[in-house]
Amino acid sequence: MKIEHYHEAADYIRNQYPQKPRFGIILGTGLGALVEDIDIEQEIEYSDIPHFPISTVESHDGKLILGKIAGKAVVVMQGRFHYYEGYSALEITFPVRVMKLLGIEKLFISNACGGLREGQEIGDLLIINDHINLHPDNPLRGPNLDEFGPRFPDMSEPYDKKMIAQAQEIARKNNIKVHTGVYASVTGPNLETPAEYRYLSILGADVVGMSTIPENLVARHMGIPVFAISVITDLGVDGKIEEVTLDKVLAAAQKAEPNMTKIFEELIALQD
Q1: Lowest mean pLDDT, pick from 18-32, 64-78, 108-122
Q2: Position 60 pLDDT exceeds 60
Q3: What is the three-state SS of the chain?
Q4: Looking at residue 58, what is its pLDDT?
């Protein structure tokens, strides 16, 4: 990707929606209903934006939504991109850099994942406080784009501690069950074998998915604070492993979606 590609995409979006969004949101598998609570002012198909990838996964609509949540301007990706679709790490994260050029100050990410710990149940939420990157590529590899950030970005706080604490308090007040822990990201698209679930657990992961970390790396490179939350849609715990289908994942995500949406909306309302 050339630096001008990011600017051309951002310029196109600005021409459609001149207002500056303060917050970016990436919606994961089966988690698109948050859009229903947005005061939508503009929708743009990914296919219309210069250099934008196209979402190929069922349940990922492939639209950029611009509008307001709690009176605050947001830009929302209704559908994301994954390494398993054949995209490079740079292509996966292209929209995050475009959102930075549009003016976002913080990034909110959701995903569907597999739970790796006893006590987790399908439909539970997990607030991510750290991650383990098991992808073979890194979106920051190659010549550094100095306009966006430093060659060697610090990762001592990959997920914003203040927003994590705020989200935990929102969950407590609303009687929403949440876990907090480490997210591991693998390439997919296959789900993990029982041995791989055990391996990931030994590594220190609490959940496993196929996204989120590339977007986080690019956001942190640009100095954007990140909050991320996972919906546990299947279990990788010995004795609880069952055959997983996309329909089951979507059903679990939809069950948990109201709680995730509640946390996102109240968390965004709290931001300065």
Answers
A1: 18-32
A2: no
A3: CCHHHHHHHHHHHHHHCCCCCCEEEEECCCCCHHHHHCEEEEEEEHHHCCCCCCCCCCCCCCEEEEEEECCEEEEEEECCCCHHHCCCHHHHHHHHHHHHHHCCCEEEEEEEEEECCCCCCCCCEEEEEEEEECCCCCCCCCCCCCCCCCCCCCCCCCCCHHHHHHHHHHHHHCCCCEEEEEEEECCCCCCCCHHHHHHHHHHCCCEEECCCHHHHHHHHHCCCCEEEEEEEEEECCCCCCCCCCHHHHHHHHHHHHHHHHHHHHHHHHHCC
A4: 58
Query: The whole model's pTM is what?
Result: 0.96
Q: Give the pair of three-digit tokens for residue 152.
A: 């060697």
140 within 8 A of 221, measured Cβ to Cβ: yes
> Does CATH number 3.40.50.170 belong to domain 3-270?
no
Phi, psi of 246 (to 5 degrees): -60, -35
Residue 163: both structure tokens together: 């927003």
Instruction: For the chain, give the percent of residues with pLDDT over 70.
Output: 98
Query: pLDDT digit string (tens) for 13-41?
Result: 999 999 999 999 999 876 777 888 899 99
Q: Where are the domains of the chain?
A: 3-270
